[in-house]
Amino acid sequence: MAKPSPKLLWCIIRFGDDMNWWVKEISDDVHWDTDGLSIIDPKQISYILDLLDPLREYGLSTDLVEEAFIPFQIQQANPDQTVKLVRVNESFFESDEMLFGLPDIVDEEKGPYAELIDHITRLRVKFLNDNIDFEQKLTIEELEEQVREMQNQAFMEGRALHVFQEIIDILEFVPAGYELADADEAADKDDSEGDDGIDVGDDFDLDPDEKIEEDDTMRWDEGDEEEEEEDAAPHRDDDAYDLDAMDEDDEDDRKSARRKAR
Fold first, then answer.
1. Number of domains in the chain
2. What secondary structure letter does DSSP report for 29?
3. N or C: which end of the chain has fewer CB within 10 A?
4. What is the pLDDT of residues 131-174, one digit of tens each?
5. CA 202 to CA 97: how far, in whole Å?
6. 86 to 89, 131, 173: CA distances (angstroms)
7. Residue 249: inside a domain, yes or no?
8. Is residue 96 a contact partner of residue 254, using CB atoms and an 8 Å limit?
9. Is residue 49 assigned to a domain?
10. pTM score, two decimals?
11. Can you give the pLDDT at residue 236?
């Protein structure tokens, strides 16, 4: 009898030297390779949703965003400074929970994450052409080429590309020599957020012996599982991180994102 294929139920993540979270171990090691597999944390998700908001009037598909990332929730912190996450059935736009997002890159060329990258690239080009007076319209190819040059530089320096960086390279892209009209306003907003903006490391604190009991949000249809089978960085203060609850600023961010989604 054929051995049943493993299911994507949980993953164990580590906090890297680059101040990002990386997958160390995963329940489905048949379809997923943990070599260079990154995952975005709750504050990074909130930051990405804020950057996506201006693209709504250009046709942003929230469904594509939801499909591109598989939601996970903290189950427990381990003594070796890793964290175990369990898969949940939650919406990044609607949930009050502190969610991590694993990019669906099983099919790196045509999968949901690849589709999202193409989607936000097209929308960012439309947005820039509408908001900057270029001598000639910016093209998708030009954006992709300039982003690729930045990412190649990282590879040459021996740095793995985290999914968060890949996304904000697109969503924050402005051609050299140009700036958006509201760039000063955006900079003031970032300065006002300070270290609380997307600072993950200081906000987690969970007893290594504490576990989250399984509930309905950790279950999903078998059909979804079968269908699935077909890389502003955070900062950690020393080794302490609070995995139990987000601070009030994070809660406000998530509520704001949900209001925008509606």
1. 1
2. T
3. N
4. 999 989 999 999 999 999 888 887 787 788 999 999 999 999 99
5. 18
6. 10, 41, 33
7. yes
8. yes
9. yes
10. 0.72
11. 44
